[in-house]
């Protein structure tokens, strides 16, 4: 008689909500990854826009590095401001979603005596 052991089937017995907690953690990790990607893309777009806009202005007016350097220096605080704005909105959304009841069981428990 042989026993087949599959570790992916075994769940911890003392943690009944481990599946739900893992799902919440995965969701949070995905949201954070999306936030980082979004901030990175916006920062890249701002810096590239400043670079190419500055190069175009320098060619148009005949001033070699003036507009390019000025726009690149201006793009730094603009990208930091937008990064903070996006991060604050995402964190506010995460907090709002975390405070909402997720399923029917949690909705039914709201306002009932939990000391049974």
| Weakly predicted, low-confidence segments | none
Assembly state? single chain
Order of helices and strands: HHH
For the largest beta-sheet, the strand count, sense and barrel status come to: none
State mean pLDDT (0 to 100 scale).
Answer: 82
Strand content: under 5%
CA gyration radius, whole angstroms: 25 Å
In total, how many beta strands? 0
Report on the structure:
With 116 residues, this protein is an all-alpha fold. The two termini are 47 Å apart. The radius of gyration is 25 Å and the shape is rod-shaped. The mean pLDDT is 82. α1 (18-61) packs antiparallel against α2. The longest helix is centred in the middle third of the chain and has 44 residues, at 18-61. It has 3 helices and no strands. Helix content is 72%, strand content 0%.
SSE inventory with pairings:
Elements: H1 18-61, H2 66-99, H3 104-109
Helix pairs in contact: 1-2
Q: What features would you highlight for this structure?
A:
single chain, 116 residues, mainly alpha, 3 helices, rod-shaped
Brief overview:
With 116 residues, the chain is mainly alpha-helical.
